[in-house]
Specification:
The chain contains one helix and no strands. The protein has one helix spanning 2-79. By secondary structure, it is mainly alpha-helical. Helix content is 98%, strand content 0%. Homodimer. The ends of the coiled-coil dimer bind to each other, forming polymers. Interacts with FtsZ. Belongs to the ZapB family. InterPro entries: Cell_div_ZapB. Residues 6-75 form a coiled coil.
């Protein structure tokens, strides 16, 4: 009888060990996925910052062109 109990206990322990090993593998996969997502987020944030910088530059160039056009229009009005 005690041998049967020991076998049952051994089976339960093996099941627990297998479950722990499986969960550890899943945890490792999730950690890797998390790191990949963090890397993607950092890359996207860097791209957003670059696009914002470019948008600001284009805005400044647009304003400069508007000022030049106003200046030219003002000179044309002075000529008339």
């Amino acid at each position: 009888m005690s041998f049967e109990v020991l076998e049952q206990l051994e089976a339960k322990i093996q099941t627990a060990v297998d479950t722990i090993a499986l969960q550890q593998m899943e945890l490792d996969e999730l950690k890797e996925e998390k790191q990949q997502l963090l890397n993607q987020t950092e890359e996207k944030n860097a791209r957003i910052e670059e696009l914002e910088r470019q948008a600001q530059q284009v805005k400044q160039e647009h304003e400069a062109w508007q000022e030049r056009i106003r200046s030219l229009l003002g000179k044309m009005e002075d000529v008339e």
